[in-house]
Amino acid sequence: MLDLGLTCPNRDGASGFGGCIYCDLSGSGTGAERKGLPLLEQWESELKRVRRVNTDDPAAILYFQSYSNTYPDLAPLQEGLKIASQWSTIAPIVSIGTRPDCFSEEAAELLAKSRSHFDEVWVEFGLETAQDAVQKRIGRHDTLEHFHRACELAHQHGLGIIAHCMSGLPGDSDESLLEQVAEIRKARAHGVKFHQLMVLKKTLLAHQFLNGQDDIHILKHQDYIDRVADALEHLPADVVVHRLVAESPIEERLAPLDWPSRQAVHSAIENELIRRGTRQGSAL
User: Fold this and answer.
1) DSSP alpha helices (H): ranges in 173-261?
2) Spatial separation of the C-alpha atoms in residues 5 and 32, rounded to whole Å
């Protein structure tokens, strides 16, 4: 995970202040740039961490995660990609996280040019919910229309598309993941990341949660497992699932505190599909 130290339009006042209610001060990333770590040091640190886990596979994915990496201008990302291109033999894939409303023709062209250095270039769009009213509730102020427009632009430039989906947001329905998967199908996205709502410290959500705001309901892990299993049944079999559940350090989290490990959630989702006798795409 690489951090360019950028921002988002719902942080700098363009559409709001304080960020999405669930997003912490590091933009849901490492916060490395704020700590003064140049990109090279971030790369070396992250590569060492990955290799501790994946000892048999030296390859890695370059992931520009924090904030919106195509906002407010493209100069930092352009420089970041230039630096990162020297690592493409070890990391032949690069993934860029951003908001749909921050993805322009110029951004698409920049990423398309990066395909000369990398085997694959992905752009990860935060979908989060299929309901614009929920976007406003969580302080995000993006729209479903922007998501589809951004995906079409990415298709035109030959970029891989990953959609980021959340379950458990205030005001969203129990069928939220199913609604998002339906939009993913329409947008012809190539990949998806599933994410449960977590209440992280130093977020607007933490303040609302501690003050007992009544539309905040923390999912039980079994409810999440059921929802992801439902969503997978309606997800085309050729869509790559890049993540099934999110993690955060326990010391940074207010809720949920009683969830099993990531590996246990993965196994539980797989076992739920086995119990049902279904698989990814079987409901289509």
Assistant:
1) 176-187, 204-210, 221-233
2) 8
**0.90 exceeded by the pTM?**
yes
Which residue segments constitute the domains of the chain, with CATH numbers given?
39-276 (3.30.750.200)
Contact present, 128 and 164 (Cβ < 8 Å): yes
10 Å Cβ neighbour count for 14? 15
The pLDDT value recorded for residue 72 is 93
Q: Cα–Cα distance between 109 and 284 in angstroms, integer?
A: 34
Number of neighbours of residue 116 by Cβ within 10 angstroms:
9
> Judging by beta carbons within 10 Å of its beta carbon (0-12, 13-18, 19+), is residue 185 exposed, middle or buried?
middle
User: Model confidence over 95-134: pLDDT tens digits?
Assistant: 999 999 999 999 999 999 999 999 999 999 999 999 999 9
E-strand spans in 80-167? 93-98, 120-128, 160-167
C-alpha torsion angle, residues 183, 242, 110, 70 (rounded to 10): 70
Percent of the chain with pLDDT over 90: 77
Nearest of 279, 168, 278, 283 to residue 221 by alpha carbon: 168
- Residue 112: which of 64, 47, 160 has the closest Cα? 160
Residues 6+ apart with CB under 8 A from 31: 3, 25, 66
